[in-house]
Backbone:
């Protein structure tokens, strides 16, 4: 049957598929009735039913002294499989980072949504040392300032120093005023020279790009790329275009 082959693709064995389909047809039934219809030995049924119960395909309840089994709604099965797929999709950035990493090719990991932004920010704290980069007022304003407050608190706990360059704005000026207490040195450029919704930075041998407006970003792990961007940052850091405090 086509339906049996489809169910086997959910990692069910043929015997488990027969038990589920039999329970689906019979409704709430005893182990012996389901085993008989599925053409499975009753003793073998109990072992198989445990796997089906753990996978969410089968449920059981006690009716008097008797144990009754019944199949889960097919729509619930689809929902279970959909959640498995969602978990796999969330793991894609990590899987991509492992894919084709032989030789000296840089490793690129992509992230999306607010969870992805949190992942990138958290990754910058995993390695001790200085973080440098170009920041944006959206870093401060994102999610009603929740992210910046939490990130700065965690960074201070990690004792990671920051040097940041940002545009002339109320948000960046506010950051600059708190530089000393937040282990940071901030320098400001005129908006006609630099204005951005994107944050770009370097930590260790990694470079990150964060778009707070479109809610996506990526991390490039590669010593040469990080080195070149750090050099660009230092050129701007020492630029005569920086606005004095």
Residues:
């Amino acid at each position: 049957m086509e339906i049996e082959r489809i169910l086997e693709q959910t990692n069910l064995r043929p015997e488990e598929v027969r038990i589920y389909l039999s329970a689906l047809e019979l409704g709430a039934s005893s182990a012996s009735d389901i085993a008989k219809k599925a053409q499975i030995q009753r003793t073998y049924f109990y072992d198989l039913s445990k796997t089906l119960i753990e996978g969410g395909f089968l449920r059981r309840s006690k009716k008097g002294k008797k144990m009754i089994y019944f199949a889960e709604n097919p729509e619930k099965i689809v929902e279970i499989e959909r959640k498995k797929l969602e978990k796999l999709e969330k793991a894609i950035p990590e899987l991509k980072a492992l894919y084709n990493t032989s030789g000296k090719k840089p490793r690129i990991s992509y992230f999306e949504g607010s969870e992805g932004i949190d992942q990138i920010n958290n990754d910058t704290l995993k390695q001790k040392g200085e973080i440098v980069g170009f920041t944006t007022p959206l870093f401060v304003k994102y999610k009603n300032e929740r992210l910046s407050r939490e990130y700065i608190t965690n960074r201070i706990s990690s004792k990671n120093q920051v040097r940041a360059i940002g545009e002339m704005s109320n948000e960046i000026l506010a950051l600059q005023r708190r530089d000393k207490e937040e282990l940071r040195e901030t320098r400001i450029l005129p908006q006609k020279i630099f204005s951005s919704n994107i944050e770009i930075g370097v930590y260790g041998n990694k470079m990150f790009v964060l778009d707070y407006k479109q809610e996506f970003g990526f991390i490039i792990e590669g010593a040469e790329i990080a080195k070149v961007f750090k050099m660009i940052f230092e050129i701007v850091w020492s630029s005569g275009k920086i606005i004095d405090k």
About this structure: The radius of gyration is 28 Å. The domain at 2-83 is CATH 1.10.10.10 (Arc Repressor Mutant, subunit A). Residues 26 and 171 are 65 Å apart (CA to CA).
